[in-house]
Amino acid sequence: MAGRPRFLCGVVEGFYGRPWSMEQRKLLFQWLKRRGLNCYMYAPKDELKHRLLWREPYTEHEAVCMWSLIEAARKQGVEFVFAISAGQDMVFSSAGDRLLLQQKLRQVAAMGCCSFALLFDDIDPCMCQADREVFPSLAQAHASVANEVYQELGQPPVFLFCPTEYCSSLCSPSPSQSCYLQTIGQELLPGISVIWTGPKVVSQELSAALLEEVEGVLRRRPVIWDNLYANDYDCRRVFLGPYMGRAPGLMPRLQGLLLNPNCELQANFIPIHTLGTWFQSELGSCANPDRAGMEMVAALGDSRGPREGSYSPQEALELALRDWVAEINQQALEPGGWTPGHPSVGLKGRSRLQSGTAGGQEVVPDPKQHDSVPSGVDQHGPEPCGVAPGEGCRKVTSEPEKGSGSRTPNGSQQSPTGDGDQLATGSRECCEPSASLPSVAESAQSAGIPMATKTLLSPGHTMSSSNEANTSQNLLLPTSDARTGSGSPAQSLSSTQPEAIRADMPQTPPGTGAGASPGPPALLTDEITASSGPLAPVTPEEVTSSPTAAVTPETGSGPMVPLTPKEARTSPTSQMTSEEARTSPMALVTPEEAGSIPTALTIPEESGSNPAALLTPEEAGSSPTAPLTLEEVRMLVELFYLPYHHGALAQELLEHFRWLRANSLSVGVPATAPDACGGARWRGRAQSFQLLCAETCRLHSRFASAASRALLYDLHPYLWDIRNMLLAASAFVLWLDGHLLCDPGPKGTWGNCFGWCQSITAPILLGRDAEPWACRGGLFGELQALLPVGNSCDLFYHPPPLFPSSQTYLLRPLLPLDKGELYRMCRESLDCDPKVAEILMAHPDLLGDRLLGPFLSLSPEYTFVLEDEGGLCGYAAGALHAEGFLQQQDSSWLPAIRHKYPPDLGTGGPALGQDALEEAVLFFHAEPRAVPLPVLRRFPSLVQLGTAPRVLDVGASRSLALCLLSALRANGSRGVFCQVRDADGQQLSFYSKLGFVALPVAWGSSPGTQLLGRLL
After folding, report:
1. What range(s) does the GH84 domain occupy (predicted)?
2. How is 571-629 classified by DSSP, letter by letter?
3. Same domain, 750 and 898
4. How many domains does the chain have?
5. Which of 622, 623, 759, 874 has the fewest C-beta atoms under 10 angstroms from its C-beta?
């Protein structure tokens, strides 16, 4: 490498969506310096004056901000590369446009910038008429502009050029035969470097052979723009895994490598950390590293990564995990890092995803806040904001355009609002400054544990569940607004973790995943029989006496029912490690075996870490705000790994769910296996799946309680999505045992046309040339596809809560003992006058019989309950064959209930809650309401949903509905309907957001009531 210019290795801010704030970039420079990286390229696609309004010069205030950013990079030893995207509307033959481009770059050069980049990616390859008259090809037009600008700037040592064909998949027919690239290689001046992304926009691997071909056609070594971690093409994916897929010894074939990371800055710690380890390894593998490289190797020290030329992604991940745990807990303990008791710590300017067209996403900005998301560092006053107008609506299209700004599909923009300190046009006003946030300290504080999270209410939402009086129209109101997050009932049991870890910790062998993690909630029932039927639940006494409380294939049967969230928090003996669930999916470990498995990660004494404040599993479990442990952070990374690879935890979840789906007939009705072996094996694996779901849901609760504010708001939407999906998937697996109909109906009927459990269950294998956006949603999307209603995308897209919360929820099928508590919930949900309360005390089952009585008596197998730490708080009830259900209700259930409640019970003067009594008595004694036959034929199933007013998490309520609809669909239903009163606006809104529409049928027998339906 002697005589070669310095190898550029760092980060390019080149994604679509809300750009990072100035203070976030300064934090990034600190990370780059810490990892020995030396370059940052400023290229945010939705910064107005970078792309859309590239001709406009920066105002005086904007110039000061840009100067401060360039100076901050210089102080950290980071090369600042200013990029501009002028190709969208530039007339290449226009002297005026060329002059404006040169003036813009000279203005930035006057601010102290010495490195530049000219980007012609994601533009129309067709030239205008004026250009066609001057240039014979687009490549010659691009080369002419680049050469002129390069010479006008005095031939700076770093000048990068991004061609329109920037990867092999965009070249026709191949890079070596591309006329465009051949012309670029011939015409471009030798001092200009060319950007390349690899074989694809998001390249899974980079090889020396491919780079040799590109070097030949370009006549120079390329600079890699690496989109491995870019996530602006999919709003449900974020990538936290190690840098991998790049063959060793690539550096001699390159002039640089710039990583285009996640849109969320806090999600990029591990990508940047492992990139630095890769860079160090590559420097060490070179025979003659340059002086700058030798200095970086010496500065990092031998303990910062693998030995020379021996880069291992797993070893690099282990190093990064330890440093990230220390960074996370340090930020959480800093003043302002996490203040759950202050409502002002809101999501400032944070966008919320809503369902959009074509199954995509729209972004709805917070109407009250417009400055930046907390970055974890100080905000020092107002800075100009400027984001492209097109950024206001992020839509994920089904087909990518040819190329994109982050070299990802065009138009999949991440966030809508201009950041509080982004560069903008002079006509735009400056945003208000963000709330003061602390800078990253040099060492972790030794005291100050974050307080427990509190539920914060959003003042600006219209569909909130409040403390207002509830009438008969809204006895149990499903929440239609997303405000609070929730977790899992399982309690923390995690490995030890030092409070602070020194930067010179040596590498350790990679772990096998989340080792010491909590098991699932224990199993409850009123009676237990040791038979070969459905899985036998475990009593609380057995849970207390058994460290694992696991059901093995020999233990019998009964529906698996987890502990309540309150019981799970106070029962540390009812837990099982995730390693047990992963390594033994068929037969779970015995208590003796479990006792021999270590539950804490051992950190060697020579590691150089500070073991003064190690957390035991009991300490982590007893304090929800205890710092996050190494194993918890590892679980987070394994859930959101890389675009082409799942982490160990995500892979286990998928494998279990696929197997359970494929073999669900072994526990169906009637049982198909002549012996109990198949059912016992299925139940053992279902138990393992329950363990993993419980651990993941618990991780959500721990993350909401202990993570720093900046990290929480960056990653919580992704973890919240997974939590909601696993709540539904876990309850659905519980329901499959003993409820799935092996033969939904006779041949030729509507019920027989659906074969969910008989369908091919192998995942769809994409070709090697497919980009990662071909498989939407990552882990979330694959779990969604495994549910019977997975094709109904509108059921799965809802905005994350505005204020994350650690509230835990449990979703499960109905148990016989739940009836009394459900009736109590119905009774307590009615805000009533004392006179009405006296009537309810005399008839405590009145409201419960009205809302749930027919379902619990005639169709209990299609009833699910939602539970929080206060008890049952929601239900979803259904009837598979509504026609027969209504006939049986009218012929047998109603006559019996009429003897229970006299017809004059609801008479009385006007009083709060009186109308609820009158409506219930009228329902019992009035003539039965006949549902039109066309409705029953098209929507054969009946559903009813409700939650207590205290449930503010729309994710939990929608997961409840999702589980019921999945159960009905699995047994053959193709459509559902419900009955809602016209005056019940909140119920109507909630059902409409689930895809229900008013059915245009006459229903004269029931005035004031609407029929809503949706297809499955």
Report:
1. 7-283
2. -TTS---HHHHHH-SSSPPPHHHHHTS--SPPPPGGG--BGGGPPPHHHHHH-TTSPPP
3. no
4. 3
5. 759
Q: What is the CATH number of the domain that holds 938?
A: 3.40.630.30
Is the same domain home to 864 and 978? yes
Active site residues: 122
208 and 126 in one domain? Answer: yes
Question: Are 901 and 1002 members of one domain?
Answer: yes
* Domain contains 479: no
Question: Is the distance from CB of 92 to CB of 144 less than 8 angstroms?
Answer: yes
Say yes or no to pLDDT of 889 above 60. Answer: yes
* pLDDT for res 25: 97
Residues 784 and 824 in one domain: no
DSSP category for residue 564 = P
Distance, in Å, from the CA atom of 116 to the CA atom of 188, rounded to the nearest integer, reads 15
pTM: 0.74
Query: Does one domain contain both 77 and 201?
Result: yes
The candidate with the shortest Cα–Cα distance to 896, out of 924, 856, 920, is 924
Same domain, 862 and 907: yes
Range of the domain at 891: 810-952+974-1015
Kindly compute the dihedral angle of the four CA atoms of residues 152, 158, 159, 161, in this order, to the nearest 10 degrees: 170
Three-state SS annotation for 636-659: HHHHCCECCECCHHHHHHHHHHHH
- CATH number assigned to the domain comprising residue 248: 3.20.20.80
* C-alpha pair distances (Å), 842 with each of 18, 175, 296, 470, 834: 59, 83, 80, 20, 12
pLDDT digits (tens, 9 = 90+) for 794-836: 899 888 888 888 889 999 999 999 999 999 998 887 765 566 6
For residue 430, list its beta bridge partners.
384
| Residue 414 in domain | no
Kindly state the average pLDDT of the residues 337-355. Answer: 37
CA distance 968 to 792: 14
Closest CA to 637 of 711, 708, 565: 711
Cα 143 from Cα 135, distance rounded (Å): 10
- 138-142, 415-419, 1005-1009: which has the minimum mean pLDDT? 415-419
